[in-house]
Amino acid sequence: MVNIQRKENEGPTPTEEVQLLFVHNENAIRAFIRALQPSLSDADDVLQETFLTVSRKASSFEIGTNFTAWACGIARLKVLENFRQTKRANVLSEKAIIALTEDVPSPESFKEREQALEKCIAKLPSKLRDLLWRRYSRRQTSDEMAEALGMTSNAVRVALSRSRVSLRDCINLQLKETKGI
Amino acid sequence: MKMEKKERELDDLLNRYMDGNLSEVDARALSTQIEESAEVRERYWELASIHGMVEQTMQTASLQATTGRESAEQEKRPRASGLSRIKTGIAGLAIGVFSASVVWAFKLPQDNQPQPKIEEIVSESFENPEQNFKRRFPYEAGKWYGEISSISADQGISSVSGVRVAQFLDNPKAKFAYARYLIDLESYTEVCPTHTRSLRVDTSFFASNMDQSSVFQIRLAAFSQAPQDIGPIWNDREVLFDQVLQHVGRNHITKPGQDSQWHKLSASIDIPPGTRSVVISLGAGMVDSNADKSNHYLDDIRVSLVDSPRAIYADNAQ
Lengths: 181, 318
Known about the structure:
The structure holds two protein chains of two kinds. Chain A has nine helices and no strands. Chain A has helices spanning 14-24, 26-36, 40-56, 67-86, 94-102, 107-123, 126-136, 142-149, 153-179. In chain A, helix 1 runs antiparallel to helix 3. Chain A is globular, with a radius of gyration of 19 Å. Chain B is of the alpha+beta class. Chain B has two domains: 2-74, no CATH class; 86-314, Jelly Rolls, CATH 2.60.120. In chain B, strands 1-9-8-11-6-3 form a six-stranded antiparallel sheet, with no helix packed on it. In chain B, strands 2, 4, 5, 7, 10 and 12 form a six-stranded antiparallel sheet that branches. In chain B, helix 1 (2-18) crosses helix 3 (38-66) and helix 2 (24-36) packs across helix 3. Chain B starts with a helix and ends with a helix. The model of chain B is unreliable at 62-113 and 311-318 (pLDDT under 50). Classes of the chains: A mainly alpha, B alpha+beta.
């Protein structure tokens, strides 16, 4: 586990500082990447590439400014790079991705939504929670879930879509209530 | 009414995009809508952010799966918040190590609790000079494969263990060169029902060029399939994430100008119920692929099965 021996009173280097910031803000950065990148495996690669670039460019980050915004700016370029490399036909156009990243919600907004999410998941019917768990934790395909739960694949896809829409509506409602709108 | 229908159709398109089920024609149509409408972009972000956030939340829920709980609906123990989970991770990390797919929310056993049983199942320091490593993904458990060769530890490189080390060879097809190994859990005693099992890998990496940053990587993945049925997963990404039960990745980046030294790196993966095989992938490469190259070396790999009493988790249940 020990990989770098340092003198006791030596402060962290810029690289170490941004790497720790990255770990602290991993959830927000990952959520940003996953929102743009539907393939789980590609998102994982983009996250790793982003981490490497953030480490390499550590000296250009000004400590005290918004780290998540800076890292998401790098992540956006990595998503575009990945789209160009993989050349898949069923992904969004480069122009659409650029338009989306220009309208990206603030990191604070991501955090607010994340906080609201937990309560909203708890409000979902247990069957839908189970489906989300199978999809996002066990990485099961619709066919596998259908077989395990005695449903059709189409019914699984519809239920997953419905649960995501329910969560979105619940989060929006919660945020409205919190802000007294 | 018309507006509601349009919104429902848009939600349907967005959901299909997020599930990877969008046709080429639909992808073009969705792209056009996103390019032209700020409202569509806002709706995209509202739904798409759910996708990433739920994934984070459910990854934490996978911890319950490894403790034998088969469904999220049985979950009663409050989950660690994202932040505390990461902080727990940092406590176990040395500087510069990053976990890509994390299940680090272990509770350390207290003194009065039963201690985990640790069995070392692989110890490799590449001492056989005749050993040839096939440069391909493993198709058999219990052997090392990949872009490596056993070399004598001299010319300024001391070994961590024994007198030889493995040198990573150039891998023209990828940024990293890899050493890979498959564990067949059928070869080991079954985990006791009162315990949970994890697999821990400890190893050491070395970079010859200390003027440039190198990156060392450990990736571990658990599968229900037998070893011979696991394909070259890292070359077929869709297969990896359709079949994998659990996945952990860790990187360590060296600092330019640092003294030459071996970098010791460790990673652990919880073994979910139903796991038959575990893939161990050890990689090395340059952070900047345009930088001066470095030779990379590997030595003293130790793989252990760790069986921990489930009571550790039960004590925390409410």
